[in-house]
């Protein structure tokens, strides 16, 4: 009987271990799990968490974190500055954030690391050549890893700010140009090697750590007379040498995890860096502001085939929903995992928007030179409220962004933005048009920024830069009222609603206009039904005269199509 129980115990134990999570690995041109099955990483990057960039905080001065920190210290002192940063990092990422990401459809997170949360800078070390290890960075990483484990999500560790800084684009690595860079200091390179060994030692047995992204976006020329950001270099010897040293240092301790490499010129210039030197390596590239066609990624498809190495879009974003949808569809069509940037900031074109409290806006105005210096207490309260606003429950969730990233790459249909159930009267805000890409839920003449491909100036899609991230231009007046403006001929908006019963209804629009000949047509269920001539009225919002329409029982679509521009649209009203 005892032998039977033991055999049963062994059987159960083997069964449990059979379902345990294994390490991801690079196998030929794919990233696979422990069963050898393809894994397509759908991820989000935590920009602004351990490492702030000025644009994410709307600051008017140089965008390095250390510069922002100095400005804060001048107002509130070092002690309160540290209190703010502790609160910022505590609130910025919590379990609820990771739970939400899993629910929304993501399966991975890229964590940008700032080396100074893990070790002192070379200049601060009390003993030259030694490394003082700090616990905060590791503790923050441990917490995030535990939430990822709970949600069965992968975590990618990304060295975003290397000791000394890895490029001339100083904001992304919090680089101080008055000090030696990563490339100008052997001590900085040795510290980076030691840090990766420390990380590998701590996480070598953690299968929910997907990979180590060794250096984010190197942008430094090593060749005389070339573009300073390394986009023209053809040899890149110092970069390859350091990446090889980092890989060797990691492999001395950790043979389990994928190692991710990035080329020069913000991650995309691989001349002189390939072929790969490790059999568990992934090539990363970054993609911003260019066309979403096969030509835009062909060089990386070629690398994948030539060197039998998986490729991964390690960073992308900062564009419109149309761009997001098209880029992600392109990646998934080519079996390339992706990671978007960032999850949250003070801005509208990401999943979570951190609200700007009035006191912080006053602080920004002061730094801009348009307001008086706040008191120490007022400035501190403004910053602490900003830190409080980073909690997910205090952020604005942009479901249109999430829809563009997760649903729209697989679906060409529109769905309703809000529930619109019509019984007697129904007022729909003009800004609440359906969810879907350009040509499906709306049409606008400018719906994304392609300035890298066009060579022209950056294109603004939503000129009001608020509420939604489509091509539709949404504005907010000084009373907080949202409306659609800058309407141009042939642009249109679609709204889905449910009618309790079929029959005759009326529709009217709330508008203001600067044009005597402004005109809009109404299509009900894809059939043109009526049109409005909008009278000139600049001073106030007014309802047009109602026009008759017929609705079906159940689902209906109403499309407002611009025939002659020159007006703004606030809402539409459907009445029985």
UniProtKB/TrEMBL annotation:
Coiled coil: none annotated. One of its GO terms (biological process) is cellulose catabolic process. InterPro entries: CBM6 (IPR005084), Galactose-bd-like_sf (IPR008979), GH (IPR017853), Glyco_hydro_5 (IPR001547), Glycosyl_hydrolase_5 (IPR050386). Keywords: Carbohydrate metabolism, Cellulose degradation, Glycosidase, Hydrolase, Polysaccharide degradation. GO terms for molecular function: beta-glucosidase activity; carbohydrate binding. It comes from the Bacteria. Residues 454-575 form the CBM6 domain. SUPFAM superfamilies: (Trans)glycosidases, Galactose-binding domain-like. GO terms for cellular component: cell surface; extracellular region. CDD domains: CBM6_cellulase-like (cd04080). The keyword Hydrolase applies. Belongs to the glycosyl hydrolase 5 (cellulase A) family. This is Carbohydrate binding protein with CBM6 domain. It comes from Leeuwenhoekiella marinoflava.
């Amino acid at each position: 009987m005892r032998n039977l129980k033991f055999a049963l115990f062994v059987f159960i134990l083997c069964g449990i271990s059979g379902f345990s999570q294994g390490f991801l690995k690079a196998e030929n041109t794919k990233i696979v799990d422990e069963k050898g099955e393809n894994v397509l990483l759908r991820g989000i990057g935590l920009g602004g968490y351990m490492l702030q960039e000025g644009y994410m905080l709307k600051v008017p001065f140089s965008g390095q974190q250390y510069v922002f920190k100095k400005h804060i210290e001048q107002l509130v002192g070092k002690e309160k500055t540290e209190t703010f940063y502790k609160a910022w990092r505590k609130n910025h990422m919590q379990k609820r954030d990771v739970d939400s990401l899993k629910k929304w459809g993501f399966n991975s997170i890229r964590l940008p690391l700032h080396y100074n949360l893990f070790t002192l800078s070379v200049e601060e070390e009390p003993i030259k050549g030694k490394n003082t290890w700090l616990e905060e960075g590791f503790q923050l990483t441990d917490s995030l890893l535990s939430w990822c484990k709970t949600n069965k999500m992968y975590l990618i560790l990304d060295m975003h700010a290397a000791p000394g800084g890895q490029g001339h684009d100083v904001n992304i690595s919090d680089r101080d140009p008055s000090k030696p860079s990563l490339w100008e200091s052997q001590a900085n390179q040795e510290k980076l090697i030691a840090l990766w060994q420390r990380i590998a030692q701590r996480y070598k047995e953690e299968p929910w750590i997907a990979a180590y992204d060794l250096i984010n976006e190197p942008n430094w020329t090593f060749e005389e007379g070339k573009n300073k950001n390394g986009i023209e270099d053809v040899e890149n010897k110092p970069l390859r040498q350091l990446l090889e040293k980092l890989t060797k240092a990691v492999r001395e301790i950790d043979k389990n995890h994928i190692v991710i490499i990035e080329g020069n010129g913000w991650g995309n210039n691989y001349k002189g860096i390939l072929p790969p030197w490790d059999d568990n390596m992934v090539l990363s590239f970054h993609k911003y502001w260019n066309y979403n066609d096969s030509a835009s990624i062909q060089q990386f498809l070629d690398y994948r085939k030539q060197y039998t190495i998986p490729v991964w879009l390690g960073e992308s974003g900062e564009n419109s929903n149309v761009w997001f949808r098209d880029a992600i569809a392109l990646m998934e069509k080519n079996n390339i995992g992706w990671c978007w940037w960032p999850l949250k900031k003070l801005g509208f074109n990401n999943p979570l928007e951190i609200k700007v409290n009035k006191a912080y806006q006053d602080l920004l105005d002061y730094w801009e030179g348009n307001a008086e210096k706040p008191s120490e207490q007022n400035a501190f309260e403004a910053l602490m409220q900003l830190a409080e606003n980073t909690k997910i429950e205090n952020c604005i969730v942009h479901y249109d962004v999430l829809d563009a990233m997760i649903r729209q790459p697989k679906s060409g249909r529109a769905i309703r933005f809000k529930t619109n159930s019509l019984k007697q009267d129904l007022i729909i805000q003009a800004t609440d048009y359906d969810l879907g890409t350009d040509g499906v839920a709306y049409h606008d003449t400018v719906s994304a920024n392609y300035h890298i491909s066009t060579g022209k100036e950056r294109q603004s899609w939503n000129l009001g830069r608020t509420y939604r991230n489509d091509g539709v231009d949404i504005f907010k007046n000084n009373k907080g009222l949202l409306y659609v403006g800058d309407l141009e001929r042939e642009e249109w908006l679609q709204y889905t609603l449910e009618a309790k019963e079929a029959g005759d209804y009326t529709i009217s629009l709330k508008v203001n206009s600067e044009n005597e000949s402004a005109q809009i047509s109404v299509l009900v269920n894809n059939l043109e039904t009526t049109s409005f001539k909008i009278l000139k009225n600049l001073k106030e919002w007014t309802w047009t005269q109602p026009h008759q329409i017929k609705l079906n029982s159940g689902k209906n679509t109403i499309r407002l199509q611009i025939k002659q521009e020159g007006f703004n649209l606030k809402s539409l009203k459907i009445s029985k």
